[in-house]
């Protein structure tokens, strides 16, 4: 029945043409202002079109063969690597990980890791310490003690789960994770330009609308299971075709990877959205990516960008590709990143201007406060310190609004650079006003 429905949908909507995809991508690049984008659209067992636009850090054109970091999209590859071991009978989804990795608490199964229901969360480990690990063995060795919730009872998205899963691949197979992924996932799919870890051109960060290239932040194992895959639009086409049932993966394995857990819509490196699509996004510090497959129609999509900012445009571009494949005219991608940058630039300039004015007028302010209620003077002094207080707890605030994901100071100097600079400017302006007012108060009183 599923095959029949997919065939009917494919027959109803003719595939978008390469020209229409290229035209849309050029438009998206122009509107979003991204440095470079590569995309691929697949249909059934065919790659409809893989292409790219813009430039990389070396000044070269981004094409379907440009290496791109896909960040957390890597998780679906890790799940596939584990499933090849399951298919070979070398490990079971309901095996306890503790039997292979003694550092992991008992009762956590392989399935729990891949479904992000192990009970391990960013709050249960020292993420800052883990960023210093260079290998998966070292990473897992730094984990204990792990205070976990009851396995299988709640969802908590954490890179730890997938780095542990990658280490499990190493222990079970006797090969490095990178080698195993290449031999048992990439090579069988013909993904000859894909690897875990390795070099890719620098990505870009935006500072008030100006892009500049930077090396990727070194914050964990060089080859890990949570976000180190480098691939191309052409290779992603082969991957999406296989995920839609036209590849070496067993039907049972695809079903297991795509099926949500009992406590969340997340499966094993895929998550079902409200429209029945299976998606997974990825955000690194200088790259962003998103992939999607439609099990009913057989379409697949991937969007990869070599720029990361507060606003991620990959989802918007993906929506346009989906519209094309359904015979609709894509909505024009919005310029929300530029708007956010302009607003933050205005806030930063205003903070600096008000800070300068406050310093200049500090003596007059102190004279007016002479003889008035001391508590009111203290309150007014406290107000100007609020930006500095916010900046002092900046990582904690961002982590809180990121649904429990731990964000570190070093990371805030990348994708959130514009916000970080704006907050720093406001904090310094407030401290300058505080210092000037205290000095003037002492001299007047």
UniProtKB/TrEMBL annotation:
It holds the Pfam family Beta-lactamase. Keywords: Membrane, Transmembrane, Transmembrane helix. Residues 22-310 form the Beta-lactamase-related domain. Gene3D superfamilies: DD-peptidase/beta-lactamase superfamily. InterPro entries: AmpC-like, Beta-lactam-related, Beta-lactam/transpept-like. The chain crosses the membrane at residues 342-362, 374-394, 414-439. Signal peptide: none annotated. It comes from the Bacteria. PANTHER family: BETA-LACTAMASE-RELATED DOMAIN-CONTAINING PROTEIN, D-ALANYL-D-ALANINE-CARBOXYPEPTIDASE/ENDOPEPTIDASE AMPH. This is Beta-lactamase-related domain-containing protein. It comes from Lentzea guizhouensis.
């Amino acid at each position: 029945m599923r095959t029949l429905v997919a065939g009917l949908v494919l027959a109803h909507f003719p595939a978008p043409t390469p020209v229409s995809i290229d035209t849309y991508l050029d438009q998206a690049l122009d509107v979003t202002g991204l440095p470079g984008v590569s995309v691929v659209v697949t249909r059934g067992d065919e790659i409809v079109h893989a292409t790219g636009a813009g430039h990389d850090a070396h000044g070269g054109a981004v094409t379907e063969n440009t290496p791109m970091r896909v960040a957390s999209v890597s998780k679906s590859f890790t799940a596939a690597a584990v499933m090849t071991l399951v298919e070979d009978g070398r490990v079971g989804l309901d095996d306890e990980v503790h039997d292979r990795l003694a550092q992991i608490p008992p009762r956590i199964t392989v399935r729990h890791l891949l479904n992000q229901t192990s009970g391990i969360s960013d709050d249960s480990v020292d993420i800052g310490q883990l960023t210093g690990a260079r290998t998966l063995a070292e990473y897992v060795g730094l984990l204990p003690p792990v205070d976990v919730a009851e396995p299988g009872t709640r969802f908590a998205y954490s890179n730890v789960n997938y780095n542990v899963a990658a280490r499990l691949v190493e222990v079970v197979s006797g090969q490095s994770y990178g080698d195993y992924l290449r031999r048992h996932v990439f090579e069988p799919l013909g993904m000859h330009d894909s690897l875990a870890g390795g070099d890719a051109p620098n990505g870009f960060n935006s500072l008030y609308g100006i892009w500049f290239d930077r090396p990727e932040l070194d914050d964990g194992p060089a080859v890990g299971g949570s976000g180190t895959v480098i691939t191309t639009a052409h290779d992603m086409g082969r991957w999406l075709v296989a995920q839609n049932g036209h590849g070496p993966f067993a039907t049972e394995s695809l079903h297991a990877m795509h099926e949500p857990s009992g406590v969340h819509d997340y499966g094993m490196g895929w998550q079902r959205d409200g429209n029945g699509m299976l998606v997974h996004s990825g955000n690194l510090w200088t790259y962003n990516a998103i992939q999607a497959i439609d099990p009913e129609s057989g379409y697949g999509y991937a969007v990869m960008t070599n720029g990361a900012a507060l606003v991620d445009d990959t989802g918007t571009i993906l929506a346009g590709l989906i519209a094309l494949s359904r015979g609709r005219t894509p909505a024009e991608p919005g310029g929300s990143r530029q708007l956010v940058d302009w607003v933050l630039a205005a806030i930063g300039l205003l903070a600096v201007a008000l800070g300068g004015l406050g310093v200049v007028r500090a003596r007059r302010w102190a004279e007016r406060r002479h003889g008035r209620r001391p508590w009111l003077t203290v309150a007014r002094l406290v107000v100007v310190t609020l930006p500095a207080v916010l900046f002092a707890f900046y990582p904690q605030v961002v982590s809180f609004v990121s649904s429990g994901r731990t964000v570190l100071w070093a990371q805030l100097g990348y994708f959130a650079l514009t916000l970080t600079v704006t907050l720093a400017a406001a904090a310094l302006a407030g401290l300058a006003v505080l210092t000037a007012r205290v000095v003037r108060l002492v001299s007047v009183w």
